């Protein structure tokens, strides 16, 4: 079951498990609030602490950007059905694509919870936005790598694209990169939609100063000083202390 929806204005959505929420959501929330963007946070199987932490994040967000909207949702599933660690990790990586169509009440930009919003993002004049590239990974017979999953735009009335992505993920084993392949297949299945193509000036994992989104890729979340210093800075800008809230 999925509980909660977005607001009704253009929104940035991120999804994760509770551990990632506690580790990364404060930096993302601060960055988005300071960039004056609405956000939606989704968590799978949150505990009482997880629910309280969502309240904490939105309270801080509202202090930084009172005119904005911070909404939340959660789902409850039996994660034990995924016996392999790879499948569990892949499920969490894909989960925003599995729940987005159910929670969206507005146009949405789906992003990673460990990204930072470095500049304000306006709504996009397109039906779908994808980060297309010409990589060819060995996984999935070379289909992985054609579409990066770190940023995906969907206009509300084109959620059929998301439903196609969800169906592919639901009906295939949760091998790594299944979300990228699902996005590629949906792109091929809907050739008549108006597409916006993102590039590394919009989202990058090299943390260039003029990029709009910095996304934490792999071990760069812990090993890259530019990323870790910015993460610390955004967390320090969050206006509430956990000890004062809990």
Q: How many beta strands in the DSSP annotation?
A: 11
SSE arrangement, N to C: EEHEHEHEEEEHHEEEHHH
- Overall spatial form: globular
Residue share in helix: 25-40%
Strands in their spatial order, largest beta sheet? 1-4-3-2-5-8-7-9
Main beta sheet strand tally, sense and closure: 8 strands, mixed
Question: What class do helices, strands and sheet pairing give?
Answer: alpha/beta
Contiguous uncertain segments of 5+ residues: none
CATH class: Alpha Beta
Our measurement of the CA-to-CA distance between the termini, rounded to an integer number of angstroms, reads 27 Å
Which second-level CATH architecture applies?
A: Alpha-Beta Complex
Total helices: the number is 8
Overall mean pLDDT: 93
User: What is the CATH topology assignment?
Assistant: Spore Coat Polysaccharide Biosynthesis Protein SpsA, Chain A
- When the domains are counted, the total is 1
